[in-house]
Amino acid sequence: MGVMTTGRTSIPTGRPFTVADLEAMPDDGNRYELIDGMLIVIPAPGWSHQEMALSLAVELRGACPRELRVLVAPFAVQTAFDSEVQPDVIVARYTDLTARNLPAAPVLAVEVLSHSTALHDRNTKKAHYQRIGVASYWLLDPAEPGALTAFELDGAGAYREVGHVVGDEEFRAERPFPVTIVPARLLDGLRP
């Protein structure tokens, strides 16, 4: 076990990463996440990614009941000493939130796909969210005309797909609260 030094930052080697290591990472424009001690570096997102995430957050916030809150990244979901993720959009119980992070599973986690994150979002993060008990997980794809795939935990604690819509199709969610989302409308800000 050792430490690799890069400029002013020391990065541990030979052992899994911890949240304490994550807090020491440089402020270099990347987001750093941990899943079971594995470091994931996420480059700054592009315009279509940000447009879709922000538009969804606005839609969710407009329909959100008072006992829940909608937050956007960067905001940490830290459920273990070796796991901290920052979903693009979360819906959490007000009573679960702290000023610093969310130390419990959100009721909804949303990831917006990009070339650099799609593999993790579809696999590693989906499995992590399932394991920690995130009741609803949505994947948004900003590639024209836009798409939304929704998963919900079943009685056995496994995700099952409950919806997939593209473009102008409507997704009518019941969980975590009733809301209708049209993927193409989440991309309207990209057009003049």
Characteristic terms for this protein:
single chain, 192 residues, alpha+beta, tt1808, chain A, 6-stranded mixed sheet, 3 helices, endonuclease activity, Nuclease_put_TT1808, Restrct_endonuc-II-like
Description:
The protein has 192 residues and is an alpha+beta fold. It has one domain (45-190): tt1808, chain A (Alpha-Beta Complex). 19% of the residues lie in helices and 36% in strands. It has three helices and 14 strands. It has helices at 19-23, 47-63, 118-132; strands at 2-6, 9-13, 31-35, 38-42, 68-72, 77-80, 83-85, 89-93, 108-112, 136-141, 147-153, 159-166, 171-173, 179-181. The strands form five sheets. A six-stranded mixed sheet has the order 5-8-9-10-11-12. Strand 1 (2-6) and strand 2 form a beta hairpin. It starts with a strand and ends in an 11-residue tail after the last strand. Residues 1-8 have low confidence and may be disordered.
Number of domains: 1
Q: Which structural class do the helices and strands define?
A: alpha+beta
| Spatial order of strands in the largest sheet | 5-8-9-10-11-12
String of helices and strands: EEHEEHEEEEEHEEEEE
- Unreliable stretches (pLDDT < 50, length at least 5) are 1-8
At the fold tier of CATH, the topology name is tt1808, chain A
Classify the beta-strand content into a percent band: 35-45%
Q: Could you tell me how far the N terminus lies from the C terminus, measured between alpha carbons in angstroms?
A: 54 Å
Helix proportion of residues, in percent? 10-25%
Largest sheet: number of strands, sense, barrel closure: 6 strands, mixed
SS elements, strand count: 14
CATH class: Alpha Beta
Shape: globular
> If you compute it from the alpha carbons, what radius of gyration comes out, rounded to the nearest whole angstrom?
17 Å
CATH superfamily: tt1808, chain A
**What is the name of the CATH architecture?**
Alpha-Beta Complex
Counting DSSP H or I runs of 4 or more residues, the number of helices is 3
Kindly state the mean pLDDT as a whole number? Answer: 90
